[in-house]
């Protein structure tokens, strides 16, 4: 579901390529399901099928973790869960703030899956004074005036932006100035951030447009391929420019690359 790239080189300093990092949550989700069924070991083929990944790619990915499995036995599920969780930084608790508690922000706040994956919603923040103090998912909404103190007091390094696009850059700037170094952006705009800040962008409409592209190709089998690309490409490339689209600022490298949803 997520789209976008982090502001990182293609290979991380520890030598794990970004593409591998992006697949680790898929493996973790499949492994967690196996663990819940008390399955002790899994072959690379079984795990690759469960994660929707090619098995040779999986073995290569796991070699970066120093995990090679045992011939004839496969991988130890529990140990691999631990290894991947550790690699993703999920063996520690990450406080997260959500800014913009409208339809989407409230839905995210109500999502129960964050806590079990190592993310704690530390605060919900909104600019609407009428919302201040109102509980959403059991957490009282706090006004944006308190954003900086909330970030500092809770040691927050991850911020989720669910404001209208027009407010997103300003919210991003404040989050970053207060110490946030990772941002998950749901607003349909490209954010400009300094070096050292990672941005991931989620845009369901882009995902749907990509599916529409493939649907059209399937439906149009027999029609000249180039004609279809020409017909479809403009709306896809123009995807972020919705009613509250890009604000014309510098567009960072966190682009519209289909990626994976964390586990
Ligand atoms: N990425 C996706 O797939 C996806 C899906 C749905 C919505 N969206 C986007 O998410 C955003 C929120 O959508 P929604 O339907 O929840 O909108 P909404 O209007 O219901 O909620 C927006 C909230 O942001 C608050 N807000 C506005 N300016 C703010 C600021 N400067 N600081 C803090 N809070 C501020 C508003 O008070 C409101 O509560 C929009 O940008 C929308 O386009 C993205």
Automatic annotation (TrEMBL):
Task: Give its localization.
Answer: Cytoplasm
InterPro entries, A to Z: CoA-bd, NAD(P)-bd_dom_sf, Rex_actinobacterial-type, Rex_DNA-bd_C_dom, Tscrpt_rep_Rex, WH-like_DNA-bd_sf, WH_DNA-bd_sf
The record's DNA-binding region positions are 26-65
The record's Pfam families line, in alphabetical order, gives:
CoA_binding (PF02629), Put_DNA-bind_N (PF06971)
Principal location class? cytoplasm
Q: Does the keyword section mention Oxidoreductase?
A: no
Q: Bias category Basic and acidic residues: which stretches?
A: 219-228
- Where, by residue number, does NAD(+) bind? 100-105
Asked if the Swiss-Prot or TrEMBL record annotates the protein with the keyword Transcription, the reply is yes
Q: Which residue intervals are annotated with compositional bias (Low complexity) in the record?
A: 229-244
Cite the CoA-binding domain residue spans from the record: 89-190
Where is the segment annotated Disordered? 219-263
- Keyword entries, A-Z: Cytoplasm, DNA-binding, NAD, Repressor, Transcription, Transcription regulation
Family designation: Belongs to the transcriptional regulatory Rex family.
Q: How does it assemble?
A: Homodimer.
Free-text function comment from the UniProt entry: Modulates transcription in response to changes in cellular NADH/NAD(+) redox state.
Protein name from the UniProt record? Redox-sensing transcriptional repressor Rex
User: Source organism lineage?
Assistant: Bacteria, Bacillati, Actinomycetota, Actinomycetes, Kitasatosporales
């Amino acid at each position: 579901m997520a789209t976008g790239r982090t502001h990182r080189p293609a290979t991380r300093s520890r030598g794990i390529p970004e593409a591998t990092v992006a697949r680790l949550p898929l493996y973790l989700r499949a492994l967690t399901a196996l663990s819940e069924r008390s399955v002790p070991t899994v072959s690379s083929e079984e795990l690759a099928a469960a994660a929707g990944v090619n098995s040779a790619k999986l073995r290569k990915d796991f070699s970066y973790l120093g995990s090679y499995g045992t011939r004839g036995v496969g991988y130890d599920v529990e140990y691999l869960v631990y290894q991947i969780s550790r690699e993703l930084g999920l063996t520690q608790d990450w406080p997260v703030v959500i800014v913009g508690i409208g339809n989407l922000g409230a839905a995210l706040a109500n999502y129960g899956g964050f806590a079990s994956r190592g993310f704690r919603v530390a605060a919900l923040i909104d600019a609407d004074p009428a919302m201040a103090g109102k509980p959403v998912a059991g957490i009282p909404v706090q006004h944006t005036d308190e954003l900086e103190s909330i970030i500092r007091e809770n040691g927050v390094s991850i911020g989720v932006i669910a404001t209208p696009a027009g407010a997103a850059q300003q919210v991003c700037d404040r989050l970053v100035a207060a110490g946030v170094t990772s941002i998950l952006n749901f607003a349909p705009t490209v954010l400009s951030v300094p070096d050292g800040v990672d941005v991931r962008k989620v845009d369901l409409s882009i995902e749907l447009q990509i599916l529409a592209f493939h649907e059209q190709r399937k439906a149009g089998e027999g029609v000249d391929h180039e004609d279809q690309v020409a017909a479809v490409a403009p709306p896809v490339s123009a995807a972020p420019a919705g009613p509250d689209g890009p604000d014309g600022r510098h567009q960072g490298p966190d682009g519209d690359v289909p990626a994976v949803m964390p586990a």
